[in-house]
Write a structure and sequence with these properties.
The chain is α+β, with helices and mostly antiparallel strands. It has one domain: HIT-like (HIT family, subunit A). The chain has three helices and five strands. The longest helix is centred in the middle third of the chain and has 21 residues. Bound molecules: adenosine monophosphate and zinc ion. Adenosine monophosphate binds next to loops. The site of adenosine monophosphate (AMP) has 13 residues, from loops.
Length: about 140
C-alpha cells in the first residue's frame, strides 16, 4: 500500500499520530477534524496515500464516497444534523492544505453560521471527543 513518510494523514492511518476514529473499513478510515467547521465535522480518507482527487485510486474513491454517506447518515440520526456538506478540495488553489486525498463530511444545522471557505480554528478537545462518541459504531 502506498505510504508517504512525510504525510500527516498516513501517520494517522498508521497510528503514529493521534486521531479520534469514528469509522473504518478495508480501504478507508474516518476521524474527527481537529478544527471543526461545525459540531461533528469529520474526514474520510483512503488508507493508501494519494495526493488528491486526480491521483486517488478509483476503488478508493468509491469506498471513500460510500464511507462519507455512512457517516452523513449517522450525523443526521445521532447528532441531529439537518443536512451535510461533502467537500473535497483538489489543489492549493482550491483550498487543499493536506495533500492526502480526503472528503470533509460537515454536518449542517438549521441556522448555523457556517460560510465557505470556513476559517479553521482548533476545536475544544472535549467537544470533539463527545461528538466522536456519538458517531462511533455502526
Ligand atoms: P483541506 O484544507 O481540505 O486540505 O483540509 C485539511 C483538514 O485537515 C483541515 O480541516 C484540518 O483542520 C484537518 N487536519 C489537519 N491536521 C489534522 C489532524 N492531525 N487531525 C485531524 N484533522 C486534521
Ligand atoms: Zn498520506
Amino acid at each position: 500500500m502506498a505510504v508517504d513518510p512525510d504525510c500527516i494523514f498516513c501517520k494517522i492511518v498508521a497510528g503514529e499520530l493521534p486521531s479520534r476514529r469514528v469509522d473504518e473499513d478495508e480501504r478507508t478510515i474516518a476521524f474527527m477534524d481537529i478544527s471543526p467547521a461545525t459540531r461533528g465535522h469529520a474526514l474520510v480518507i483512503p488508507r493508501a496515500h494519494a495526493r488528491d482527487l486526480m491521483e486517488v485510486d478509483p476503488e478508493d474513491l468509491r469506498a471513500a464516497a460510500v464511507a462519507a454517506k455512512r457517516l452523513a447518515e449517522r450525523m443526521l440520526r445521532r447528532l441531529g444534523a439537518d443536512g451535510v456538506n461533502l467537500i473535497n478540495s483538489c489543489g492549493a488553489e482550491a483550498w487543499q492544505t493536506v495533500f492526502h486525498f480526503h472528503i470533509h463530511v460537515i454536518p449542517r444545522y438549521a441556522g448555523d453560521p457556517l460560510k465557505l471557505p470556513w476559517v479553521p480554528a482548533p476545536g475544544r478537545p472535549d467537544q470533539i471527543a463527545q461528538a466522536a462518541r456519538e458517531l462511533q459504531g455502526p
